[in-house]
Amino acid sequence: MKSPVSLGAATLAVLLGLSSGLACPGGADEGRASGMLESMNRALRSLDYEGTLVYLYENRLETLHLVHRVDSGRVQERLVSLSGPVRAVTRERDRVTCVMPDGHPISVKSHAGRNLLRSDRIDPAVLADRYQILIEGVARVAGRDADVLAIKPRDGLRYGYRFHLDRVTALPLKSDLIDQMGEPIEQLMFTSLVLHEDADEAEPQAGDQKATEEPRQEDVGSQISTRWRFEAPPPGFEQVMYDVLRAPSGAEVEHFVFSDRLSAYSVYIEADATGGLDGVTRIGAIHAAGRQIDGHQVTVVGEVPAATVEAAVAGVRANDGATR
Fold first, then answer.
1. Which end of the chain is less packed: N or C, by CB atoms within 10 Å?
2. 236 conformational bin, left if phi > 0, alpha if psi -120 to 50, beta if neither
3. CB of 181 closer than 8 Å to CB of 150
């Protein structure tokens, strides 16, 4: 990856898919929060719906149209921009495809981490050390009553979320990406929502699990040895995926994903790359950091604070003599 310029597509791509089963510490609130978010999991994987959304970041406002379908337990989504340049993002199973204004499609594997309308499930037990989960009352979004849950980071190395869950369907009507103080960094909100009664309301059966669920990335990632090692990654982040991409030049790009099971960042390593990112840059809520190591361009990209990508890129080391 020679430059973060291509992150324009990634910025739109991360709008596909919302969070998952998290719990809030402490008695009745813990049970209530866990139950509400499990209901959201079921809704996202069983209901068919579409609607218009607005996306707000700083002084930028975009209007989007989302179509969400479930076919035999498999989620299919299409997100189309209604303002600005015509762009579209589709997600089906383990791939996200972006169609840019020039009509050129970009297809990539989806991976763990924050996807604003993501339907994969996260285990609440693994988040307690890094996040505080709070019930913050009620609200009204798109003319519908909602319960408000906040997932606040305990340090400055990750972002948190605030979800407004529809009381009738448990669908997320609004999602805020928040900082450590609970202030919104970006917001996505339905202004209208239409439910389709022909939804696939049945949850995938146990016998269908292999056919309907996406691969568990923790089973794919850290088992592969490469020429690289990652010293002192940001606390809480572990490698969950590894694959090899093909750059437009034809060169191989090694791709690693690190996640704390809610936030994530990617590490891209390309041989003989020149003119790549040196230092830190930002596009929206996405930060990227890069440097050269032994003739390779190393770039770290994620919807995480700048300190996280800086720490991640600083810890990359060449592992002489290792093989992929």
1. C
2. left
3. no
- Per this entry, what is the length of the chain? 324
Structural element, H or E, at residue 68: strand 60-71
3-state helix, strand, coil in the chain (%, to 5): 15, 45, 40
Topology of domain 216-318, CATH: Phosphorylase Kinase; domain 1 (3.30.200)
DSSP 16: S
Count Cα neighbours of 23 within 13 Å in the Cβ-side half-sphere.
Answer: 14
- Say if domain 4-211 classifies as CATH 3.40.50.720: no
Pairing relationship of beta strands 316-318 and 228-230 according to DSSP bridges = antiparallel
Which of 84, 77, 51, 107 lies closest to 99 in space, CA to CA?
A: 107
Q: How would residue 22 be classed by pLDDT, with cut points 50, 70 and 90? A: very low
Round to whole Å and give the CA distance between 17 and 15. Answer: 7
Asked if pLDDT for residue 212 goes beyond 90, the answer is: no
**What does residue 307 show for φ and ψ, rounded to 5 degrees?**
-60, -30
The Cα 29–Cα 184 span in angstroms is: 23
Model's pTM, two decimal places? 0.75
Domain ranges (residues) in the chain: 4-211, 216-318
- Cβ(224)–Cβ(242) under 8 Å? yes
How far apart are alpha carbons 251 and 2 in whole angstroms?
A: 11
Give the pLDDT of residue 204.
Answer: 40
Q: Looking at this protein, which amino acid is placed at residue 119?
A: S
pLDDT digits (tens, 9 = 90+) for 172-186: 999 999 998 889 999
